[in-house]
Amino acid sequence: MKRLLRSLLPLAAALPLALFPAAQAQIAGPAPAQEKPLQYQLANGMTVIIKPDRRAPTAVHMVYVRVGAMDEVDGTTGVAHVLEHMMFKGTPTIKPGEFSRRVAALGGRENAFTTRDQTGYFQQIPASRLEDVMRLEADRFANNQWPDDEFKRELEVVKEERRTRTEDNPRGLLYEQLSATVYQANPYRRPVVGWMSDLDAMTPQDAREFFRRWYVPANAAVIIAGDVDPAKVRALVDKYYGSIPSRTLPPRKPREEPAQNGMRRVEFKAPAEQSYVALAFKVPQLRSFEKTPENDDALALTVLSGVLDGYEGARLDRALTQGPDRVADSVDAGNGLWGRGPQLFTLSGVPAAGKTPEQVEAGLRAQVARVAREGVSEAELQRVKTRWIAGEIYKLDSVMNQARELGSAWVMGLPIDADERLMARLREVTPEQVKSVAARYFGDEQLTVGILRPLPVDPNRKPRTPAVQLRH
């Protein structure tokens, strides 16, 4: 599969495969029995989710904080990501850098990530060392502190990350400009890594205030998956996280995006080998598993993305990248099913030699229009759904995936069995629903088009060599 379920949660291993005979043929034997996850809340408001999986003697320990780039304010963009880096820089009892050294000494690996919606920290270790990493993680969640000089050094690491991963990446810069054009009021318009001018002006106090404001037990969840005994894990969680004092979580004000009433275009020029086009359509998002028109449409749009680009040789590939008259070297489609902010359906492509971004744009839109006119067959939907089942069952072999996606469900306010509910709802999507959303959401009114116009690449330019080591 290519991009079909990029924004979705894992689909349940326990889903009845009799509904999808082809999926059974792709799986060697029955899926192993899975213990159900357990979710509860500590007295201080912190959520705990435990998912036993006893197939290997390892465990994953994660802390999710429901805070990301969308919770920043103008002038301090990037602070959520900077704080993620600073969480590795010490507590009253742990020196800067010692956290990572201790996890490595336990035979584990660790890292962290920041998105628009969330920040996550994880360690994968032998199950017998779970208490050791839990002690470390609870300490830095409650007692993170570092000297100003450490902040200044790490801020340079983040700036280098922006240079390397965004400013040296023409498509990354295009998408940054596209987001800033698509969204006007919603904070999704800001880059997760932050604007360079905000990073230049950022102070240690900005990060400390963000930590005090959002790293609150009621705004966090501990996720443990792997070869663990739930009763023993509960005792450890109570010991290390239950003693963290509760604090009031600041209210979040709604920042609704105003209606868009006409096409927007972004023309972006940068040194690049090829041009590129990206189309972003504003679409409804899945807010719950209830059967409402908005939720039904969000699910149907996700199925449409699978019809267009859910497997090798899907509609976009066949129509635009194959044959003597092909217009694109590559194409993509994806639907943002859910998030804490508004979502987009995206189409994108790289023009073939001698073709223009406008030709690719027209070709992408023509394929959606074809679905709107002619619809899709039940057999085509069955093929997409069968691949979901097989792919997602294989994904559950990873305890890391299980932990990460339980955490992501919690961030979105979804129930602990979101994976099962999602697949059940996707199975219900009909060809008529797919045809209907293709006809209703792909006009000009809710569309923003971004085009990368390549400038000559300096043949003498050498690739950037980072002056500092990037964390992730």
TrEMBL record:
Cofactor(s), names only, from the UniProt record: Zn(2+)
Matches recorded under InterPro entries: Metalloenz_LuxS/M16, MPP/UQCRC_Complex, Pept_M16_N, Pept_M16_Zn_BS, Peptidase_M16_C
SUPFAM superfamilies recorded: LuxS/MPP-like metallohydrolase
UniProt cross-references to Pfam families, sorted A to Z: Peptidase_M16 (PF00675), Peptidase_M16_C (PF05193)
Species whose genome carries this gene: Ramlibacter monticola
UniProt domain Peptidase M16 C-terminal: residue ranges: 202-386
GO biological process, one term: proteolysis
Protein family per UniProt: Belongs to the peptidase M16 family.
PANTHER family tied to this protein: METALLOPROTEASE, MITOCHONDRIAL-PROCESSING PEPTIDASE SUBUNIT ALPHA
One Gene Ontology MF term: metal ion binding
Domain Peptidase M16 N-terminal: 48-193
Protein name: Insulinase family protein
Keywords in alphabetical order: Signal
